[in-house]
Design goal:
Elements: E1 3-13, H1 17-28, E2 33-37, H2 44-49, H3 51-69, H4 85-109, E3 113-116, E4 118-123, E5 126-130, E6 137-146, E7 150-152, E8 165-166, H5 168-171, E9 180-184, H6 188-199, E10 203-208, H7 219-232, E11 235-238, E12 240-248, E13 251-258, E14 265-269, E15 271-274, E16 278-280, H8 287-290, E17 313-315, H9 326-340, E18 354-356, E19 361-366, H10 369-374, E20 379-385, H11 390-395, E21 401-407, E22 413-420, H12 423-435, H13 440-444, H14 455-463
Parallel strand pairs: 1-2, 1-6, 2-3, 6-17, 8-15, 9-10, 9-15, 10-11
Antiparallel strand pairs: 4-5, 5-6, 7-16, 12-13, 13-14, 18-19, 19-22, 20-21, 21-22
Helix pairs in contact: 1-9, 3-4, 3-6
């Protein structure tokens, strides 16, 4: 017989970045909170098989390549580095373990009760939890937040087995470096993981349906970034699609066709990475039975306060519309917790940064030039290359640029786009400036420490009015 556990103020389904942050913030505000998590560990895709493990491998592979190719010109003589992939994977796993244990500690510290098992909404105020073993439980609460995240998008003709045809999850667990890796999709996930295995010795071919990589980001940024990745040895087939992959001995025969139609070609590969995006994870949640509406893309429909059409049921993160980014989910988790506690939670969707953690990094916040042109916005652009930045020159990391877009009339910063060293950190300055409605002159007149990479942001802001000093 199912057990009924006493009423909570809030039940959060999913403990990824959105879910655990929501739960902790709600607990800080005095609510009695429970979380339901289907994994044995907290942190969702991000901490377990996404953001965190991929960054560990990106970091380790970057150092591996640096030791093999960059140390000598800096006067550091070392033997050629040897790859111990098993140890590198252990390094990655250690980072994951530290993060998921940290989330577990924070939930306990904030007196959030945890239930491990698959959560299903039985209706407003009721969540059924089915553990791997043992009896089902029914939790009762005033409010429910759906924070179930997303799943890998599948592609017809490519059956993911996580061995030779892999998703991002399998790509993080490879036990040997593939001789040839075909990446299907030129977005963030494909480029990051493609970069890891290219540095470790794989030949990498990226097949992208569109005529550009990084769709959705500034075109200027994407073009420059593709040039840099090509220089590093990554190959691209744009305007193309993968239609199938069959076993050919120990390898795969991958069929590639022009996106616009035409003759197919066959490419041999050891591993195919399917990285065409992600889809909301709502399977088995009981949403249809509970009457919760979904949109045409399977996302949970919510209003401006994250509320669904069913009273007492809310949703955040990858399960709803908007960019599928961990920090977007975190901000939404904070906001909905504050709304439920009677405060004014809010997310500014115009200032959500996006970062590609390759080398060099790519980062963007706000509007792109293409968006401004399409909307008929009169703007000015200021651009500054890292080749003219003192610190970048001293470090030998001069690839890339900073671009600042500002309203032609008011000078308000509308977007900032960076490709270059540590772009993911540099973009935070732009996000803070935009959050406070700064003008390009505000950034330009702010004293930046010398010599730092951040001076490139200041110079790009100066360049909006054609007054960059070091260019």
């Amino acid at each position: 017989m199912a057990d009924t556990t006493g009423a909570y103020d809030l039940i959060v389904i999913g403990t990824g970045p959105g879910g655990y942050v929501c739960a902790i913030r709600a607990a800080q505000l005095g609510l009695k909170v429970a979380v339901v998590e289907k994994r044995a560990t907290h942190g969702g895709t991000c901490l377990n098989v996404g953001c965190i493990p991929s960054k560990a491998l990106l970091h380790a592979s970057e150092l591996f390549e640096e030791a093999g190719h960059a140390f000598e010109k800096m006067g550091i003589g070392v033997p050629a580095p040897k790859l111990d992939l098993k140890k590198m994977q252990a390094f990655k796993d250690e980072g994951v373990a530290g993060n998921v244990k940290g989330v577990e500690f924070l939930l306990k510290k904030n007196k959030v009760e945890t239930f491990h098992g698959v959560g299903k909404i039985l209706g407003a105020g009721k969540v059924e939890v089915t553990p791997d073993s043992g009896e089902k439980q029914t939790l009762e609460g005033k409010s429910i937040v759906i924070a179930t995240g997303s799943d890998v998008a599948r592609l017809k003709g490519l059956e993911i087995d996580e061995t030779s045809i892999v998703s991002s999850t399998g790509a993080l667990e490879l036990t040997k470096v593939p001789k040839k890796l075909v990446v299907v999709g030129g977005g963030v996930i494909g480029l990051e993981l493609g970069s890891v295995w290219r540095r470790l010795g794989a030949e990498v071919l990226v097949v992208e349906f569109l005529d550009r990589i990084l769709p959705g980001m500034d075109v200027d940024l994407g073009k420059q970034f593709q040039r840099l990745l090509s220089k590093q040895g990554m190959e691209f087939k744009l305007g193309s699609k993968v239609t199938g992959a069959t076993k050919k001995g120990s390898r795969l025969a991958v069929t590639v066709e022009p996106a616009a139609g035409g003759d197919a070609e066959t490419i041999e590969a050891d591993v195919v990475l399917v990285a065409i995006g992600r889809v909301p994870y709502t399977e088995g949640l009981g949403l249809k039975e509970a009457g919760v509406e979904l949109d045409e893309r399977g996302r949970v429909k919510t209003d401006a306060h994250f509320k669904t059409n069913v009273d007492g049921i809310y949703a955040i993160g990858d399960a709803i519309a908007g960019p599928m980014l961990a920090h977007k989910a975190e901000d939404e988790g904070m906001a909905v917790a504050e709304i439920l506690a009677g405060k004014a939670g809010h997310v500014n969707y115009g200032v959500i940064p996006n970062v590609v953690y390759t080398y060099p990094e790519v980062a963007s916040v706000g509007r792109t030039e293409e968006e401004l042109k399409a909307d008929g916005v009169d703007y000015k652009a200021g651009k500054f290359p890292f080749t003219a930045n003192g610190r970048a020159k001293a470090n030998g990391t001069t690839d890339g640029f900073v671009k600042v877009l500002a309203d032609a009339k008011t000078d308000r910063v509308l977007g900032v786009h960076i490709v270059g060293p540590d772009a993911g950190t540099l973009i935070a300055e732009a996000a803070v400036a935009m959050e406070f409605s700064a003008s390009s002159e505000d950034i330009a007149r702010t004293c930046h420490a010398h010599p730092t990479l951040s001076e490139a942001v200041k110079e790009a802001a100066l360049a909006v009015e054609g007054r960059a000093i070091h260019m």
